[in-house]
Amino acid sequence: MGLGDRLKQKLRAFMERPGTTVSLDRYEAILPRILDLEDELTALTDAELTERALALRDLVSEAEDGQPFVTLAEPLPIDEQDLAEICALGREAGRRALGERAFDVQLLGAMAMLQGNVVEMATGEGKTLAAFIAAFGYVVRGSRVQVLTVNDYLADRDARWMGPAYRMLGLTVDAVGEASGHDERAAAYRCDVTYVSVSEAGFDFLRDQLVLRAEDAVMPGLYTVIIDEADSILIDEARVPLVVAGSLADVTSDASAAATLVATMRPGRDYEVVDDGRNVQLTDAGAALVERAWGGIHLYAPDNLPKLTAVNLALHARALLAVDVDYIVKDGRIALVDEFRGRVARRRRWPDGLQAAVEAKEGLTATDEGEILASITVQAFIALYPTVAGMTGTASTIGDELREFYRLEVAVIPPNTPNVRVDEPDRVYATIEEKEEALMAEVAAAHETGRPVLVGTLDVAESERLAAALREHGITCTVLNAKNDAHEAVVIAEAGGRGTVTVSTQMAGRGTDIRLGGSDEQDRAAIAELGGLYVIGAGRHDSRRVDDQLRGRAGRQGDPGGSVFFVSREDELIVRHGDGIGGTTAGDGRVSGPHVHWAVGHAQRVAEGVDFEIHRNTWRYGVLVERQRQVLALRRKALLTTDAAAELLRGDTTRFPADLDAVAEADLPADPDADDLAHAGLELVTVADRFAEVEEAIGEQAAAEIARQIALYHLDRGWADHLGMLADARDGVHLRALGRQDPLDEFHRLAVPAFNKLLTGVDTDTADTFMAARIDSADWTPADAGLERPSATWTYMVHDNPFGSEMERMFANLAKMVLGRR
Ligand SMILES: Nc1ncnc2c1ncn2[C@@H]1O[C@H](COP(=O)(O)OP(=O)(O)OP(=O)(O)O)[C@@H](O)[C@H]1O
Q1: For labelling alongside 669, which of 84, 122, 420, 785 has CA 20 to 30 A away?
Q2: How many domains would you assign to the chain?
């Protein structure tokens, strides 16, 4: 079966997937038992309640030879009785300490999370409290818990907010943020429950992989993780590599010269945008222009590869990345915009020189990208936790991905109060202009009545354009986007007020709590009477989840509300994946017909299918590297915590010359072996003998420490080189894919022997360094032999390569073939 057939089969399976979710029957049956227990618990004093929770923990200790508060590699299993007891205690602590008694649906959510599921709970249904109960449950079953959030703010907020309830149950809790120092981090991770953003946790994990003394690591290990906004972290960010980079990289580039040159080029003549706007290539005329401008060079000569790369990157930056869509310029820096959240994506960079190309395009100073010292994708990082649970408002459409990539199931929790929001069918127009005209009229009509309106847009530029148009129509509105996020809290607080019109990017779509009647909710009843918040989407996103999150801003906790999306045939999603969508067009541009709505949904499903395939494909590349990383991590841990390096030297019988000065003077062939050395009359000594001498001179412990530091240096150096090599190999492999070899097989053919060489290389390099050095004091470090470690200076996330590949185009065409036209 060829690659194409395999892809076709997979895509078909994806399109025909069953939407199964976890049954809640079992958990519902426990609810009465929780009520009974609750009666008992309300009679206790606070101190007695704490005692009761601690008694649960003691059960684990007893099972583990009476050790107090043990942390197990995996939590003990949780049966019905445990679930009931945990939920009753959690509910009671929440009621007393926070003034919030968990609703039944929150308990269902907590129980489902305690069984290692991802729960879908609608906006405002109180996921924070449900997660607290689940976290408590995992701790009393012997685990430590990290609650992963999407940012520092939420980690801090939730740890503070839930803190009193945890403490009432005898648990310790803390948060880690970017500003936390080393000792604070170490202490926070040793609490029973730690709230931390996924990036901070990932960076700490990576930095721990680079420490030179075991006691400098901040994380005591990875146990249970509960993931907030699970779809966002597990799917949208899954492919993002977290990176720790060092300062020794050589940064010379032609970025700025290339940017100047490319700015003079004309689209169509000098370069072409291809693949539905996902790729760009130089024409012959363009290449000739570059060659002339750079003094008659031959651009495609191997020596000029760096120049060709610089031109290609500059073209990408110019033609495919747009300011106020993909990034904004803020305070003299490029800030990437997160496509799913509409926010500035903090600490994100484009990979492989693209960042520098965009900086050059905007006339900014290039920021250093450094050499990658350690790296892990979000998905691989999450996979390291033995126990995973999560929660989000939108999980049911990604059940398959969660199952395939994480072996997680989704439990859909019903809302506490039924959802009465009215979701109208999409309104489809022929052109963007007609669509926006109709959207204006819809906003104006709703605004006239005083009903609050939230207009959702796809990017910063669109939000600004629509806001300006609304103002021209005499409608006052507030804009919320990555550029003016400083006033977010105020804007959101008032977005549900009478007559308020808010134009926002996806920023308003997740985690924002829009209250009817504005912050004081004074007008609440009247606004509810008007129909509640009206969400109007200016276009559909590639992912249904983003649209659903936007809709979810209306109709929260049983409020009235409404939503509708406006779509045009010219929208990017429809152009790329919609196949025209059919229908007949009325005088105002409105398109109608039996298949129009189906066609819009179809375009979105194709986009999602493409994304899934790319995710799966990048993951296949990542699997091998991740396995290598794990092997290396074990090796490193052994070096760090045992005297493995000293053992190695002690047992090494390779002979080296005893007197290094004599070697310089001896008459030797280019690459001498031991025989050559002996022949030249040099005295030889084995590594083992030399090591014994050094031990004698500076003490066993000091010698072992020096051996350790040399080995760690070579291991880390080798890994950084390996990562660099793999990145280059991947690019090369894709070129080779055109030559019909399976690129993944090719990649493995390169990566496997390189890694094996790395592992053996560490041992020989360690011996070489040791023998070449003159170690006469315990203070000796590898830096004395010129082996400088790059300091782990930067942490960042690599932004998904935005420009398309052969692969993506292929998937999109296949998806269309598989789905067919109706
Ligand atoms: N059992 C409860 N009793 C009373 N109030 C509650 C209860 N549970 C949650 N709340 C309140 O509901 C609001 C929403 O809670 P929370 O922020 O946890 O929701 P969420 O599910 O995380 O929403 P989002 O999807 O917007 O993040 C909060 O103001 C919280 O205090």
Answers
A1: 785
A2: 4
